[in-house]
Structures are given as C-alpha cells and as structure tokens.
C-alpha cells in the first residue's frame, strides 16, 4: 500500500502551489539548495531525509561524534529511525563549522532545552543572507519564552527566521507517506523559501505569517496529549477523549490569542491538526507518557520507559506560568502540571476536571 502511494505521488509535477495567509497563491519551482539540519533525533533525521529526497544536499549535524560515525557507517539512524536508508545526498557532521560551511539554509530540530545553546553556536559561522528555520516544538524551559523570542535574543532582530510545525510523525515522513506542515515567518520570502524546500508531490507545505500562533500550537498540544494519554489509560473512552481534545483546543486558543496569535491559526495544521494527531496515536511520546502515568508509574519511571525526549513535560510548567501571568484559564493544562510536578494522582486530576462548576461553552 505504501509503495503504491509513493509511485502515484512521485509521478506528479515538481512545481508547488501553496497558499499564504490572506489567500494569496504563489507558485515556486523547487530549486537545489544546500541545507544544514542541526539535530539528529528522529525528527531532524526525518526532515533531512525529506529534503534529500526533494533533490537538496543535506548536511546532518549531531554533537555526538560516536553517533555521527555510526550513522555514516550504516547510512541510517539505527537508534531513532531504523530501516530508513539515507539518500546519497545526506552528509554527516559532528563539526559545526563544517556543517554550516557553504549552506543556503539552516534548520534546527533540537529539543527545546537545547535550542538556545544550539543557536549560540551559529553566529561565527553563518552569514546574514542565510535562511534560518526551526522545527522544535516547545517553550524555553526556565523562562517560558517562545522560540522566536530566544532566536531574536541570540541572533538579533534582523535575522530572517521561520518556524515549521504541523501534524507529523517522524517515522511516517521518513517513509515517504503523505503529510503536511505549516511554515510561518514574518517575511513572505522566508516562508516561501522553506516551503519550497519541503514541499513535494506527497508532502505539502503551507505558509503563514502567524509565527506566534504556529509556535504555540506545536507547544501546547504536547501538554494536552499527556492529558489524553492519562484519560485513555484510565479507561475513560472515546467520549472523554473527544471532549478533552475539544476543550483543549479552547485552552490553546485562549492562551494563543492572549500572547498575540490568531484564532484561525489554531484551527489549522499547527493547532487542531497537530492536537488531534498527538492525542489519538501512540506514536506520540506525550500521549504514551500519559498512558504510563495512568498505569501508576512515577514521572521518572515513565520517562525511562519511553527513553526519548518528551517535550510536554518541560512545556506544561512554562505554559501554566504564562497562563497565570495573563490570567488565562487552562484547567486541563493545569491538571497535567499538577500530575507532573505536584504529585497529584492521574485519577484525582480527572476528577478535578469533572467536578468543575457548570458553565456556558466558550472558546
């Protein structure tokens, strides 16, 4: 079935027709680019594979020299994406200077807690005209800054930047299955550059100028996915899951609009699309974390069981700090924070939500 999809989709035109916010249509022909992808986890590797299959030269960088050597020898990322063979146009680097040499664009795909440190490596090696984007989903731990705020602090306000987010699991992207993301940037040219790099016959890249909305959608959905995993792990069923997703979306929109995002963004790929995906499929680490917590495991035990980064753990506290500062009600996110950081049992957290007073439905 998957091979049939690929054959059908690859026979289509390589020209792109994607729409920007405001219903402006732009056609761009895919051109060869040299892109450095910083971060060789599952998502960074999947994006590197996607870019390489789109005809671009990709320099995939990781801090761990042993991991880089292993990937170079095996021509795959056996740890995070076993079985996905690297296209020949992927080059592996552990030296940041070499990884950034002679590239047109730099794409960060590192955990939120490593975002600032990775950005700090760039200034000696990148030029003003190089394109910069990130596919990291989260807020900065310890301060709750949105990632574009961190990037502005590190690189200055004149740097062109974009954020890539949407309902995507790394494994499916790496396998060439159909998918879609939103690319948001304050500059139309920057959004179009990254959309043209990513867009292919079976992977759509839509553009937007709502950087805040796209960033927050990708961050908050991880917290809500933990809640969905808890509810499902406790056996509350499909009705509860649907209610949680719907009311979770309302929370996402309330905080997002308060921080400057647009309500319609949260109804798109980076909001509702990503929320539904992560709340309903066990490929989501955040959902799996909730399932583990519902089984009675401690947070430490659950994280060990998953064995990879779970962004919602960091994001829950930062989201609630921002919400409290703005007096935005986020009862679902608040209960996730209580479970993660204040030893509230998952069952008590669900009961607290159910016992809230009756009120009119609002978004």
Description:
The protein has helices at residues 2-10, 42-53, 65-74, 96-100, 115-119, 147-155, 170-174, 188-198, 211-233, 237-258, 269-280, 285-294, 299-306, 311-326, 331-341, 346-354, and strands at 15-20, 24-29, 34-38, 57-61, 90-93, 105-108, 131-134, 161-165, 179-185, 203-208. The chain has 363 residues and is of the alpha/beta class. The longest helix has 23 residues, at 211-233. Helix 5 links the parallel strand 6 (105-108) and strand 7. The relative contact order is 0.11. The radius of gyration is 20 Å and the shape is globular.
Summarize the structure.
The protein is α/β, with parallel strands linked by helices.
Task: Spell out the key features of this protein.
single chain; 363 residues; alpha/beta; 8-stranded mixed β-sheet; two-stranded antiparallel ribbon; 10 strands; 49% helix; globular; disordered N terminus
Spans of at least 5 consecutive residues whose pLDDT stays below 50 are: 1-30
What level of helicity do the residues show? 40-55%
Mean pLDDT: 91
Strand order of the largest sheet: 5-4-3-6-7-8-9-10
Give a quick account of the main beta sheet: strands, pairing sense, barrel closure: 8 strands, mixed
What structural class results from the helix and strand content? alpha/beta
| Strand count | 10
Terminal-residue CA separation: 40 Å
Which term fits the overall shape?
globular
Gyration radius over CA: 20 Å
Strand content: 5-15%
- Number of helices, where a helix is a run of at least 4 consecutive DSSP H or I residues: 16
Instruction: Please trace the helix and strand order, writing H or E for each element.
Output: HEEEHEHEHEHEHEHEHEHHHHHHHH
């Amino acid at each position: 079935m998957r091979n049939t999809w690929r054959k059908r989709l690859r026979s289509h035109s390589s020209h792109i027709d994607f729409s920007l916010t405001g219903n402006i249509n732009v056609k761009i022909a895919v051109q060869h680019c040299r892109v450095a992808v910083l971060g060789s986890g599952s998502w960074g590797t999947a994006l590197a594979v996607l870019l390489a299959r789109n005809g671009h030269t990709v320099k995939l960088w990781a801090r761990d020299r042993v991991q880089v050597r292993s990937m170079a020898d095996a021509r795959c990322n056996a740890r995070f994406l076993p079985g996905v063979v690297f296209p020949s146009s992927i080059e592996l680097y552990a030296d940041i200077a070499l990884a950034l040499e002679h590239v047109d664009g730099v794409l960060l795909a590192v955990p939120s807690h490593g975002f600032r440190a990775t950005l700090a490596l760039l200034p000696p090696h990148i030029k003003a005209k190089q394109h910069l984007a990130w596919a990291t989903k989260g807020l900065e731990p310890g301060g709750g800054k949105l990632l574009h705020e961190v990037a502005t602090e590190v690189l200055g306000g004149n740097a062109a930047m974009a954020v890539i987010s949407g309902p995507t699991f790394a494994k499916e992207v790496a396998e060439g299955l159909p998918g879609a993301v939103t690319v948001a940037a304050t500059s139309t040219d920057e959004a179009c550059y990254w959309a043209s790099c990513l867009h292919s016959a079976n992977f759509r890249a839509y553009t937007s100028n709502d950087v805040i909305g796209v960033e927050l959608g990708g961050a908050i959905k991880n917290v809500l996915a933990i809640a969905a995993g808890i509810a499902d792990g406790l056996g509350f069923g499909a009705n509860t899951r649907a209610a949680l997703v719907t009311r979770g979306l309302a929370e996402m929109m309330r905080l997002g609009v308060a921080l400057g995002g647009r309500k319609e963004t949260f109804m798109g790929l980076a909001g509702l699309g990503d929320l539904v995906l992560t709340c309903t499929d066990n490929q989501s680490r955040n959902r799996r974390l909730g399932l583990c917590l519902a089984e009675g495991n401690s947070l430490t035990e659950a994280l060990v069981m998953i064995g990879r980064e779970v962004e919602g753990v960091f994001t829950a506290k930062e989201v609630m700090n921002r919400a409290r500062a703005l007096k935005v009600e986020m009862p679902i996110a608040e209960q996730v924070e209580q479970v993660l950081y204040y030893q509230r049992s998952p069952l008590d957290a669900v009961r607290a939500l159910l016992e809230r007073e009756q009120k009119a439905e609002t978004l």
